[in-house]
Amino acid sequence: MLRFILKKLLYLVPTMFGITLVAFGFIRLLPGDPVLLMAGERGVSPERYAQIAAQLGYDKPIWQQYLHYIGNLLQGDLGNSLVTKKPVLNEFLALFPATVELALVAIIIATAIGVPVGVIAAIKRGSWFDQLSMTAALVGFSMPIFWWGLLLIILFSGVLGWTPVSGRISLMYFFPPVTGFMLIDSLLSGQKGAFASAVSHLILPSIVLATIPLAVIARQTRSAMLEVMGEDYVRTARAKGLSPRRVIGVHALRNAMIPVVTTIGLQIGVLMAGAILTETIFSWPGIGKWMIDSISRRDYPVVQSGLLLIAAIVMIVNLLVDLTYGLINPRIRHK
Amino acid sequence: MSLFSTRLLAASAFALMAAAPLHAKTFVYCSEGSPEGFDPAPYTSGTTFDASGHAVYNRLVQFKPGTTEIEPALAESWEVSEDGLEYTFHLRKGVKFHSNDKFTPSREFNADDVIFTFERQANADHPWHEYMAGITYEYYSSMEMDKLIKSIEKVDDYTVKFTLNQPEAPFLANVAMPFVSIVSKEYADTLEAAGTREDLNNTPIGTGPFKFVAYQKDAVIRYQKNADYWGEAPKIDDLVFAITPDASVRLQKLKAGECHLMPYPAPADLDEIRADPNLKMDEQAGLNVGYLAYNTTVAPFDNPQVRKALNMAMDKQALVEAVYQGSGVVAKNPIPPTMWGYNDTIEDDKYDPEAAKKMLEEAGVKDLTMEIWAMPVQRPYMPNARRAAEVMQSDFAKVGVKVDIVSYEWGEYLKKSMEEGRKGAVILGWTGDNGDPDNFLSVLLSCAGANPGGANRSFWCNEEFSDILAKAKSSSDHEERVKLYEEAQVIFKREAPWATLAHSTQYVPMAKNVTGFVQSPLGDYTFEAVDLTE
């Protein structure tokens, strides 16, 4: 098992190296450059442009810039944002917990609802429940997120007044970020009502963010279950006279979960990279919107180092998924 | 500073606040974006200035609320020498800087702070010039303060003398702008000693109406009223910026009572806002202009007759209705009507396709095909350039001119549109920096502006026009300046280097119980005068 992990970790090195190349090259391939965008309609004189480019090191050949970037990276320096002038790592660490919190709650919702719905739909294949839930899943999967988020805000926050419109906690609560996770920090603050406020602020964004993964997980679970239910060992289990609950819960579900876990893992990876639309609609201070803003402003250091950090996290999550996979599927472990 | 110690400091700041009781009057502003930082000097966006320059700081002089006129601020009075080269500012006494948990000022504001504020931007060798990696002072250099100011001299603790290289009337308006907000030198010295220089940008100390309390990135900024404010103290106790990037969500927050005031409503939401009994809306013509700039150096657009004819072929009223959807007015001059020096006697070219066709024929123009450039982004002065270009395309087709619409990525667009020999006419616009007509006319239409790095995208260089601008710029007689700018607009209209399209309207929706908010023609959002009634 240890060797398995080490081998996987070793694979990360060349991948990370490749990502630095892609991230560095990709943002520079896009037309437009940060100095011109900063100058805007006013324009910038050629002398001033040269001066700023020299100060930022953008007057050097591109390979030198890359080597410089890699050199700094190896010393743990991810660079400073061209826009805010602040270290990229500090910005990332300030924003990332918000993204993780939202992503985890969303994936919990998606799994907690998606898996049982998929299982029931598979068992009662062709029933009204199957038809209804799979149609709903198809709709959920094709939902335009921006529209869906606004619709929920207008209905639940605007018309009914049940949930807050946006933000992470009511503005009346004010305490230092200890972990960056609002659910935990609100509890630690000891302020009355803070935790409830944090929960109420999470409801709509996590439902919106969970919509697509929920649909994917439900459909994946259903098809995996259907496949497994036709297998010989399930028939054998039935023939042995095991209770239907045991047949489905142990023999079928455990095997069906293998592809489902992969799906969930991939979804976590995607969500960790930031939910751009959800974060924008709900004014959620996460990394998705941060990256998009940085790309549109050609904030080279943020884009290249931000992508690297996100890629590292996605890969680590995938590694963890691989490990769980090993736990539920012994065949992988023994290979 | 390590992240850990930043956290620790932030935590102690929070602890300090938590000890204070929740104040009665908290005003929440749903701002449209995150500030880039809290030192106003290295940044250029209005969002940053609202959060830093306007809330936390003051300048030597300031814009009188709701106008672009200059009034005293940290300078109580000033004199300009006969030759217009020396500006002597007499500073206000008894002005206190804010304090926070790391800094308590031992002295009041004085000339040292003024000198520090300017020197750190002007002088590349100043120890604070590059206190954060990669910072530049874009506004200082783009307003050409570096070329303008020859020296700054401390006459005594409460008198500062600026000597200029040439007489320049807009100088006073420049020193009212946020990038020269007065920073405490003593605070800088304290940070220097503690080895935490970047806190000048993280935890600002100013003399302004509000003290900075805390910023949670991309989420919330908190301020507290400055009870020692030298001007009239704010009526609200706490000011909160709830950062809400999406316009529809801002409106939902306003309707739900989660904030009291919001900027930049979506045009499609205006009717809904007007119909809401709990909201009210302030509207004002913005200090901006949207235009179509011909390249006056390329045939046939080097002929004023041709440019004039095209302007007459354009149904501007219809264009403004289609593009601005009721949130703009047709422009006849290159400067907006709220600006002093606006010449209202000028008559716009009448929409007359028949006459336009004739004029083109007289000019010998036949089967003309031209490019119209549509910018890829939305700006306050131009909500939908593509739509505007389409309207022009169909209007010009009626006089026999074929239009190809082109567009580029925004940075490229700005660059390519300033390239010599550019084909086609460019849709663009401008929002005023300091309310001075020179800030529109010189930047956008002077001979100097047509050089590389300028912003004169018609490449129009009219000696008569540029001479008038130069004369107006060096005159300190306001009445004379008004006359000169009025004259300049007559030449502009005659020569038609642009089709002036529209001035967009600024809308500020707010809760019914908000009082005292005064819209700034410069698009600033300031809250020292606001109050909440029961």
UniProtKB/TrEMBL annotation, chain A:
Q: Does the keyword Manganese apply?
A: no
Q: What is its main location?
A: membrane
Cleavable signal peptide: none
Q: Coiled coil: which residue ranges?
A: none
One GO molecular function term of this record is: dipeptide transmembrane transporter activity
Membrane-traversing stretches: 9-30, 102-123, 135-162, 194-217, 264-287, 307-328
InterPro entries listed in its UniProt record: BPD_transp_1_N (IPR045621), MetI-like (IPR000515), MetI-like_sf (IPR035906)
Similarity comment: family membership: Belongs to the binding-protein-dependent transport system permease family.
The name of this protein is Peptide ABC transporter permease
Q: Which organism is it from?
A: Paracoccus kondratievae
- The encoding gene is dppB
